[in-house]
Amino acid sequence: MIHNPFQDSPSDYILNHHAFNAVAFLRDYWQQKPLLIKQAFVGFADPISADELAGLSLEPGVDSRVVQKTATGWDLQHGPIEDFSAFGDTGWSLLVQAVNEHYPPAQELLRAFRFLPDWRVDDLMVSYSTVGGGVGAHLDQYDVFIIQGSGSRRWQVGEPGDYKTICPHPDLKQITGFTPIIDEVLEPGDMLYIPAGFPHAGETIAEALNFSVGFRAPSQAELISALADYALDQDALQQRFHDRSEILLNQDGTELADREPWHLPQQATQYCRELMQSALNDDALLHKVCAELFSKNPRPPLPDYPSEPFTAGAVVYSCKRYELLVKAVGVRMITTHHEGNLYAVIQGNWFRLDEHAEALFGVLCDMTDYAETVEIIEYLSSSFACELLAGMLNEGLFMLTNDEDAG
């Protein structure tokens, strides 16, 4: 195995093995029941401060909102918000999505969760809340780990059930009436795991930062949509509906069927089902669809296309001309086997890997925002590795630069 220096980089965020056992957790709790882990992180330090979070929320492309509990109900304002003083000293929360993508140091926190595949992670949402702040009781359709940073919050978690949904604001969905099975105050370094569908509510006791690791959970509709998008893009799944005799003729096939011309018979629906099932039974096609789906960020990165295309033959020379290789915000990268070969799938782009390209992939994957090109060149020792990097440069997902501020 070729050495990857980024994998050896120390992280401040290591789960406390005295408090958390990944094997036992996956066996007994994951997607089954909630769990409170006291001191899951010993000596936890916030990867971003409240002031930095507020500043980040002002940047273009950052999804943020403020939820406030008022004397008359609830209010929600979408960012960017430049003046927080209007919200007062209590009862509100600032929530910022995908902080790991916009603030690279926060990416380190996600490394602690690699007992689950990278492609399962959605994002790191960070909230700052004043005393009494929260978003009300609600349900999530995905699993989440909530890590307590500075301050403290009281969390309540209930059992799944048929709860009444209320919308005190058009963009705020809450529920009522759950009975807590967990009711605890989290201190810095504590962590709460909540599976999808378990009602929960948090209320700030002392001005707090919370870090929520959410996971991707595509619905049937999203999976079918991904299949349809892929088929349309690749001109695949072109088998078409055609009439069958049992729809048009009677059982003996001697006369026209006794039907109204506007009636849709059940047999036609069954045939449509068979057409769709045959598409789903194409294992190779479905694997490609899933690989592309999980390699794409639902918040697509903004590519920075080169003015001139890079070639695999000249990519080493190109790297020697620049000091830094910069990674675009939010790039998703996975590997998978297809037809007996190992491939990298990066934002839906496929690259065949050999040993050297696989090692380069590991370096590119473990990068937070940038790396020095001298650390990259040593991995460009095969045509597959060069094609991988040149392809990513041409897609605008990685950039070569001498600008230290670019990283």
Low-confidence stretches: 6-10
Query: What would you report as the Rg, rounded to the nearest angstrom?
Result: 26 Å
In CATH, the architecture of the largest domain is Sandwich
Largest sheet: 8 strands, antiparallel
Helix amount: 25-40%
Gross morphology: globular
Category from helices, strands and their pairing: alpha+beta
Helix tally equals 12
How many domain regions?
3
Briefly note the CATH topology name of the largest domain.
Jelly Rolls
Order of strands in the sheet with most strands: 1-11-6-13-5-4-2-3
How confident is the prediction overall: mean pLDDT? 93
Task: Tell me the fraction of residues in β-strands, as a range.
Answer: 25-35%
> In CATH, what is the class of the largest domain?
Mainly Beta
CATH superfamily of the largest domain: Cupin
Please report the total strand number as a whole number. 19
User: What is the straight-line distance between the termini?
Assistant: 29 Å
Please explain how this structure is put together.
By secondary structure, the protein is α+β, with helices and mostly antiparallel strands. It folds into 3 domains: 5-215, Sandwich (Jelly Rolls), CATH 2.60.120; 220-295, 50S ribosomal protein L16 arginine hydroxylase, Chain A, Domain 2 (Malonyl-Coenzyme A Acyl Carrier Protein, domain 2); 312-406, Malonyl-Coenzyme A Acyl Carrier Protein, domain 2, CATH 3.40.366.30. Helices cover 26% and strands 26% of the residues. The chain has helices at 22-28, 50-56, 99-102, 107-110, 220-234, 245-248, 266-280, 283-295, 315-321, 355-366, 373-377, 383-394; strands at 35-37, 64-70, 73-78, 92-96, 121-129, 144-148, 152-158, 164-169, 172-176, 180-186, 191-194, 200-206, 208-215, 324-327, 333-338, 341-346, 349-352, 370-372, 398-401. The strands form 5 sheets. Strands 1-11-6-13-5-4-2-3 form an 8-stranded antiparallel beta sheet. A 3-stranded antiparallel beta sheet has the order 10-7-12, with no helix packed on it. Helix 5 (220-234) crosses helix 8 and helix 10 runs parallel beside helix 12. Residues 6-10 have low confidence and may be disordered.
